Amino acid sequence: MLGVRNLYRVFNETRKAARAQASLGVIGDSARAAEVATLLGAQRGAKGAHVILDVSETGVTISGRAVEDPGEFSLPASSGGALLDALAHRITRALDEDYLVPLAKGYPPLRRAACEEIIRHNARQNAVVGALPIPGADMPVMTANQARMVLKLAAAYGEELSMERARELIGVLAAGFGLRALSRQVVKLVPIGGWAAAAAIGYAGTLAMGRSTMLYFERGGQKVGAEEMEVIKGRAAEEAKAFVSRFRRR
Q: Taking the CA atoms of the chain, what radius of gyration do you get in angstroms?
């Protein structure tokens, strides 16, 4: 998937993220503040926290050095899993990209949402790369981005990364991925060709590889089955079509 030199560069970039740590703090005297802290496994108090959630009965103010988009959002009336899903989505969307891996690693309730942000960020990058009018330049960059994404996801799931393990993971997850088949599927949905098709292929391929990688780690290293992979690819192709449609309207 990658030459040794590029693999070494990607590995070194990812290892820094894998070693970083970040903390989450919840402040506020309401019962919901205590509930949120318990759900997330967060500390009570802001001291040393990279992400601070100020929780009232009805809403949350998010701030801190790890937050790129500070602000307020309302709390759903639900509790348990539904509340956790809403919190994870809003928190990870507000984070600086550099903090996604350390917070996913340190706070399992945020892991899936953080990994989705990592995947979408790389998918958008590869869509832009695919749209560039530089023949032959897109695949090496896309491949490096996908390898970087795979290693970040590995780190988010607590995988110990060595150079040999990085090579093994990328090889295993790239093997049998079926980019050509996915490319044909995407082109059917985005039949206009040119930059739009290339952008859609880059977006869909990265989404599908990222989501299959998440399943791989969630299942303790078990490969995703062929039928499941087809479902993942189909969803990724549809999302890529919608992404390119939005992109073209800008």
A: 19
